[in-house]
Amino acid sequence: MTADLGAYFHLMNANGAARVYREAVRRGVLDALAANAVTVDELAKTTNAAPRPLLLLLQVLEALGLAQRDGDRWSATILARALAGGGYRNLGDEYWDHLSKLLDTDKPIVAMDHVAQSEQLYVKQVSALAWMLRPAAQRFAQTVTLPANARILDLGAGSALWSLSLAAANRGASVTAVDWPAVLEIAKQSAQAIGLGEQLTAIAGDFHKVELPAESFDLAIVANVTHLESVDGNRDLFRKACAALKPGGRIAVIDILGGDASGDLNRTLYALGLALRTERGHVYSRAELEAMLTAEGFGAFEMTVFDVVPHAVGMLLASTLSDR
Length: 324
Prior knowledge:
By secondary structure, this protein is an alpha/beta fold. It has two domains: 2-84, Arc Repressor Mutant, subunit A (Orthogonal Bundle), CATH 1.10.10.10; 115-320, Rossmann fold, CATH 3.40.50.150. It has 14 helices and nine strands. It has helices spanning 2-27, 29-35, 40-47, 51-63, 78-84, 93-96, 99-105, 115-122, 126-143, 161-169, 181-193, 231-244, 264-277, 286-295, and strands at residues 67-70, 73-76, 151-155, 174-179, 200-204, 217-223, 245-256, 298-305, 313-320. It has a seven-stranded mixed β-sheet with strand order 5-4-3-6-7-9-8, with helices on both faces. Helix 9 runs parallel beside helix 10. The protein is globular, with a radius of gyration of 22 Å.
């Protein structure tokens, strides 16, 4: 009974919060709060709203972390300002509006896992992804130890959040990032911003096809990638990583993984969201990833679920086998 009631309140509150947020966007409340600190009466005139219900709406926005008050004046939080200027303000509605058609046809609205579309689509998302996954990347950097002057290979690097976070904690380390040319420009900017521009080498192109030096790296990172690849595609990527690693080198596969019940809703929504925007996207289990890695010369697996938001991201760490 208690669990059912808790689930009901969770669902009801999620629905109410979403309605409040969208009305605040539609009516211009968040824009007005981002422009100036205002009283309720001033905001009511700007947004053509009645003061009493507007105050109640502001209190909900405050509980959601979108509005803050100082005395009788209200303003937008850092989160609300970030949403105002970014592509995530609509919370993915362009995908979720396609859900009914997906259920009818099993066809996504876009195919982000296709080579022809991936560069154009991901260059718009990597900065936002870096913001959303930064706590997990910081936990990753605290978890993985490296030898002195380690060489890190980041396959499908995006903003290079994961590899640069690790290099920042190991200042002698260097990073080789592999991704599309336009995406790597963001990685270069990220490295410069934290003083690691000289430690970053970029290799532009399809990570299945670029040439990599053999037995040259201490750690390969495959982060936020496996869910976009088929089993054969992942095995090819793992095989490529294995050949590029030094004997005894390791691979860190980071993606949406189970293990923390508080992340179950995020994980399942993510899996459904993949179906909305990819043709072959799939959230792989630990067992599935281990089977693919084993087939390509890895073993000695260690699993870590990062205990930070969104509580659904984890790492499978593996080592190259001596008889590869």
